[in-house]
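Contributing new complexes? Match this layout with 1-O-alpha-D-glucopyranosyl-D-fructose.
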Amino acid sequence: EAARAWWKEATVYQVYPRSFADGDGDGVGDLSGLASRADYLADLGVDVGWLTPVYESPMADNGYDVADYRAVDDTFGSMADWRAVRDALHERDIRLVMDFVPNHTSDEHAWFRASRAREDGKADWYHWADGVDADTVAYDAPDEGPSGEAPPNNWRSFFGGPAWTYDDERGQWYLHLFDPKQPDLDWSVPAVRAAIHDELRYWLDEGIDGFRLDVVNLLSKPDGYPSGDESEPFNGSLRLVPDGSRIHEYVSGMSEAVFAGHDLLTVGECIGDLSVEEAARYVEPDGDGLSMVFHFGHVGIGRGDALWEREPWSLTDLKAVFDRWQNGLAGRGWNSLYFENHDQPRVVSRFGDDGDYRLESATCIATLLHTLCGTPYVYQGQELGQTNPTFESLAEFRDVETVRTVEEALAAGEIESFDDVRDGLNAHSRDTSRTPMQWTDGPNAGFTDPDAEPWIRLHEDYREVNVEAQRSDPDSVWHYYRRLIDLRAANDVLVYGAYENHTPEDEQVWAYSRTLGDEAAAGAESDRAFVALNWGGEPARVEPPASLAGAAATLALSNRDGAPAPERVEPYTARPWEARVYLLD
Ligand code: TEU
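Output block (do not edit by hand):
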């Protein structure tokens, strides 16, 4: 059984400050807005707030392009405003986790300016390389380099275009796996590692409780920058870079230099096709020292290579991914549990039913999130059961990935018009979850001043779906999240119990149990839980496993009112999207 830790027992709430609450009325959410909502987080019952980047930034990627790791951007307020958020959360026993971006900086960071000028000992801090003779390679030379010269390899950026940009001042190409305004740092340089360690320490000294480490598995680049196969996504950059040969040296080095001796939550975002085996190296007790990672296994289901591509999926696909991670890390490392974040669509639209069964499917999926083994992450608005909005034109999108990818596909003739990809973008664009938080049914949903223009349009449903309405309705998604968070906090079995899936092959019912080991069970109220989810709009029969059938139990929570309160686990016919959590005596 896993050793106890506060971050295993916690529920994390992710705040995307730009879209959470606007304190100064300029249409962009900020830190004073967030501070004024601290009670909201406390009332929901979450233990940790994770803040996406609020550092000084030209905002090419909404703050994931950092120009100064030690300064708060004017958009969000001042360092004093940030400290007020920290204190407001801490006063309410909510810990604070900062998003940190170790893989790249902004091209406007002083480090990059010095590097391009070969000054200040920073000439090699980024991935600079000479171009190659365009006639000798199979890939195209972009317009901007010297004529006849192609970039060092064929990698494509994850946001569209080549992963290399020619810099006139330096006379070389620099690598950027994301936007050209996000040059990748060269982690093989010891001074780069030491500099990042210092920036991390700065925030620890400010009294924070952990870090979410952006694309941490990209830090180690393959020697010689080998080109990839053109049939692969991004010409192979997304396969060749993640989990590189020196990655564990870099991450464990960071842990030893910075995290050791602090009791932190550290979660590393690991993109690409991360295996459980590889993940274990980051998180197992003798590993790199991260608390957990975010992998992309489940959120990749039903998606194709192109951003807008939708593929059929089934519940057994989803179960297979979760089973692999639940079983694979059991007794070895800790899981993160998430469906939504600022890069992912709303889960009700993605894996639930955003039509007739919005409320029921939102709460059913919430039940899964809080009763698997791992730390649940709730993204702002998820607790309202928010659905994807409908963007009517490309002009309504703000996300650099969406806009650039579509413009590139239009220019290349891969698509004829926005209409070709409209539905797919409304399903998958990162902007689907970035619309303003819906506080009230009033002007601008209470997100900003009535006469301000929000930086991104509102979801069209805010008059029906908003915090005020749901807080006054005990049957709302919001109250169900609150109950789930409390239930998990009160029951060790839901945190530490071993997971066993009883219906791996069933296309509609997901029934599983959680069981505490003898030692942990001794002090616990309940040492076993049984959870049954009906993942669909049709009734379905739930047959508890023989080992549990007839056992004395309490129906601790259900998302369908009027569910009987059985005192034993018995077979039953579940209503559409019905979720039940039984605690066994
Ligand atoms: O995301 C990494 C990442 O790969 C996603 O942005 C990915 O492009 C997307 O999910 C696929 O649709 C992290 C941050 O979460 C993201 O917001 C940043 O843009 C990115 O890193 C670069 O810092």
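Reviewers usually confirm one structural detail per submission. For this one: The CA atoms of residues 38 and 191 lie 38 Å apart.
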